[in-house]
Amino acid sequence: MSTPSSSPAPMSYEKTPNRSVSVRGVPFVYRRLGPDDGVPLILLNHLSAVLDDWDPRVVDGLAARRPVVTFDNRGVGASGGSTPDTIEAMARDTVLFIQALGYDGVDLLGLSMGGFIAQVIAAEEPDLVRKLILAGTGPAGGPGIDKVTSLTIKDTVKAVLTRKDPKQYLFFTDTAGGRRAAHAFLDRLKERTDDRDRAISLSSFRAQLKAIHHWGRQARADLARVHQPALVTNGESDRMVPSVNSVDLAARLPQGELEPLYPDAGHGGIFQHHARFVPRALEFLEP
Is there a contact between 242 and 147 (Cβ–Cβ < 8 Å)? Predict the structure, then answer.
């Protein structure tokens, strides 16, 4: 595992500079913060997300004790190249990015589509991945995953008509508590004002939707190949990747562990319940 020696004080995600590394000639943009020593934690993002879509409370909380890396995969945000339209190709690009940073062993936190990617990497590169955190995600062929495209389009149109951010509908429950959590989360995403990332392009968004649709239509996944310890977490009312997928994922992974589903929470459960998620994640990631 990669364990550099020095340990400077963590920097906040709000102020962490954008960096770039060449991955076979293509620039991948990323941010790194936290101590230099310890196994790096690589964060794999959700559909349409760029660097600025990570909740700073989650990133800063994890980076208080762990080296944390967020990044834009190929063709996303400020990274170069064209976005692949399969989860497997996104996983290969992620492995190349990790290798380009010089890491020989990492932990992965995959949210939603990022969780699909994390599962593929863990199965295909078992010596690279030590532990997994799988949030708001599910196995290939899981129920309802192939409906993400239609649900996303429907709620995006609704958001445009009501002048709201689509995440309010897609990530949170339509309750008083869910609406308060959504507003607080969206405010936190605006805290960084300088050197913000580029929004995802329409072509990249379409490629991701195609990849997710195919993942949902695949044959039932064989999870026996994912032997790493895996913490699975979600809200109890996830509409995008129905919460039953998290329960199934934890039960079928050889070393899966299901965190009790967050109450009155949906797809963005780890953001809404960041005060509960971060300590649990850090505990799980201890050597």
Answer: no
Residues 68-98 pLDDT 10s: 999 999 999 999 999 999 999 999 999 999 9
Could you tell me which residues come within 8 angstroms of residue 236 by beta carbon, excluding any fewer than 6 positions away? 243, 261, 262, 263, 264, 265, 269
Residue-wise pLDDT for 144-162, tens only, equals: 999 998 999 999 999 999 9
Query: CA-based angle 157:159:162, to the nearest 5?
Result: 110
Helix%, strand%, coil% for the chain, nearest 5: 40, 15, 45
H helices present in the chain, as ranges: 56-63, 87-100, 113-124, 148-162, 166-170, 176-189, 202-217, 244-252, 269-272, 274-285
Quickly count helices (H) and strands (E) in the chain: 10, 8
Q: Is 166 helix (H, G, I), strand (E, B) or coil?
A: helix
Parallel, antiparallel or unpaired: strands 230-233 and 256-258: parallel
Answer yes or no: are the C-beta atoms of 26 and 79 closer than 8 Å.
Answer: yes
- Partners of 235 in beta bridges: 262
Looking at the DSSP bridge assignments, the partners of residue 132 are: 108, 230
**Residue 150 corresponds to which tokens in the numbers above?**
């239609």
